[in-house]
Amino acid sequence: MGGPSIETVSLTKKYGDFTALSDLNLRLEGSKCVGFLGPNGAGKTTTLKMLADLIFPTSGEAFLNGVSVREDRKRALENCGALIETPEVYPSLTPREALRLVADIRGVPPAEQPARIDEVLAEVKMSEWADKKVGKFSKGMKQRVNVAATLVSDPPIVMLDEPSTGLDPRGMAEVREIIRGLKRHNRLVFFSSHILSEVTEVCDEVALINRGKLLFYDTIEGVMSKYADGTPTIEVTFSAPVPYEAAARVAALEHVEACKWLDPARLHMAVGGGRAGQASVFEAIAGMRLGAIGFREAGSTLEQIYMQQIERGDQT
Amino acid sequence: MSADTAEGVPTAAPPPASRLPGTFDQVLILARWQWRDYLRSRRFLILFAIITIVGVILTGVTAYFRPAFINSPAALYATLWGGAVTIPIVFAGIFFGSDAIAGEFQNKTGYFLMGLPIRRVTVYAAKYLAALFASFVVLVYFAAIVLANGAFYLGADAFPWQFGASFLLATVYLLALLGFTFLFSSLFKTSSYATLLTAVLFLFGFNILAAVISGLARSEPWMIISYSSGIIGNVFLDPYPPHVVPASPGGPPFATYNPTIETGVAIMLAYLVLSAVAGLWFFERKEFS
Q1: How do residues A106-147 score in pLDDT, each as one tens digit?
Q2: A-contacting residues in B 171-200 (Cβ below 8 Å)
Q3: Pairwise CB contact (< 8 Å): A74 & B20
Q4: Pair A222, A249 in one domain
Q5: E strands along chain B, which residues?
Q6: Quick check: B57 contacting A, CB < 8 Å?
Q7: Could you tell me if A112 and A143 lie in one domain?
Q8: CATH number of the domain residue A246 falls in
Q9: Same domain (yes/no): A191, A217
Q10: Does B17 touch chain A (CB under 8 A)?
């Protein structure tokens, strides 16, 4: 076997007539970071919960390092740190105690525990709060403790369900940095998110799920080359509403393939011709003196692919 | 990574040795942390306050009225201990048992715990053990209050042997009652439902049911756990009360029943075992959804 692995075989979860996850077949193996993308209710958390044995599949199976989670949750989760939803730590415990509880259960030798706990607390920037009761913490602080708890035994597999939930922008950036750090430690990181920039920034591969079905799983580059149509969308912002006649002239510019006015002062347009085409359109709009104050790509290419695939999935 | 065999055929390297503690060790580890959680909780203090109030009332009433039973060791302990010990036991069940499992779902602490490599049976057993220990501390505290009363009225060396037997039976009742409250706790995901059900049943529900069964159905209410608790007080009586007391003029218009020690213990143990099996069955199938 080549390193840590996560596998789902025909994993399905139904609640009555509603299918939360349908026949998911996914195999992640080796040291890498895989982003699990999808809109709210797509089945991301359902999948991760079944991988952590918090809920049970209607059919199919989930494996961690080749061990069936349902058959032997203790052995399956032995080498896996899982942060699902936003768990509550026992309020009477301090972060240091909560991490000792985790370390004890996971069998981290007592001699190694103090240094390891200090290390992960520093990693999540909670050293200062290490000996304060968790009950008084904000949601973001608790989530940092939860992230630390998944790392305290240094597991080769880390599963994170929207780990930046509840964190402020600085906290989110720190979580991204932690995930980047995890990759450097020869781990398989599987984390769900609907923040596409986060996924693009830290992941090697991405799996997209919608309405309980896997739409694709590939490397970021593979996704770009397979699904990107090559025509980026540019957002142009004007200081004042653009008259109808001027809007028609903008739409008629060379390299502009499609136009969509979001409001009278904001426009999305598909611009062909690569960078040169974009430069030409930018100069032409500036020359029209319509009060253009912004000209930028509307979202990342991954975001556009995400939207296309989700819309396509919704239509079928 | 691979390792070569003597024949030079590469084989997969053996997985790293597991350093996870065994199931029994994990039970003890988690029970220790749960106990620590109980110790710091407000409920522990509240329960001690309730038991203190009960103790003060018993002591005060006895001191004020000076009833005849204070001259007989067996009668004194039968009244102060045998007549009141189910109160701390029931309250301990309500405070420590009823939300032990349901609370993990309601408070979302279960997401913290169940993401760890630990079996559900381990969690169930550890929480039971911690609740039992916390409840036992409360029981010992109440026993100390009663013993202090006994020592005051009868001297420090006038403890009847029945007190030891009764304490043992009370402990078995505690085991059974906690097991039963854990079953309720496994049925719900909301602590308040489990707590309410435990309180209603043990504070008056079961007693009403036992009275209805013996009074209206005219049969022994052997299936009611609180009926079995009668042995805790009866053990002080000499002779031990008859199993069936027939209806008599001036008495209740129907036969009343007293469980034998054997029957009482059997009912308690049956509740303990069946509750544990059923509670675990529900907990094993309950989803964190």
Answers
A1: 999 999 999 999 999 998 889 999 999 998 888 888 888 999
A2: none
A3: yes
A4: no
A5: 2-4, 10-12, 244-245, 256-257
A6: no
A7: yes
A8: 3.30.70
A9: yes
A10: no
Whether residue A229 has pLDDT greater than 80: no
Asked if residues A33 and A182 have their Cβ atoms less than 8 Å apart, the reply is yes
- Kindly state whether residues A29 and A74 are assigned to the same domain: yes
| Structure tokens that stand for B184 in this block | 């309720």
Q: Which ranges in chain A belong to alpha helices (H)?
A: 44-51, 73-76, 95-106, 113-123, 139-151, 169-184, 196-202, 220-227, 244-251, 274-287, 301-315
Q: Say which amino acid occupies B94.
A: I
Give chain B's radius of gyration (CA, Å). Answer: 24
CATH number of A66's domain: 3.40.50.300
ipTM: 0.85
Q: Using CA coordinates, name the residue in chain B closest to A20.
A: B289
In this structure, the answer to whether residues A98 and A202 fall within a common structural domain is yes
Closest CA to B47 of B142, B128, B132: B142
Last residue of a domain, one of A210, A227, A244: A227
**Rounded to an integer, what distance in angstroms lies between the CA atom of residue B151 and that of residue B157?**
7
Q: Are A76 and B40 in contact (CB < 8 Å)?
A: no
Q: Tell me, yes or no, whether A156 and A270 share the same domain.
A: no
Q: Residue A91 is encoded by which pair of tokens?
A: 């309020």
In this structure, the answer to whether residues A157 and A32 fall within a common structural domain is yes
Flag whether pLDDT at B17 surpasses 70. no
Domain boundary among A161, A193, A227: A227
Nearest to A161, CA basis, from A140, A147, A173: A147
More reliable by pLDDT, B250 or B200: B200
How many domains in chain A? 2
Residue carrying structure tokens 């043990």: B202
Segments forming the whole domain that contains residue A244: 233-315
- In 3D space, the residue among B24, B206, B109 whose CA is nearest the CA of residue A89 turns out to be B109
Token digits for B204? Answer: 């008056």
Same domain, A101 and A142: yes
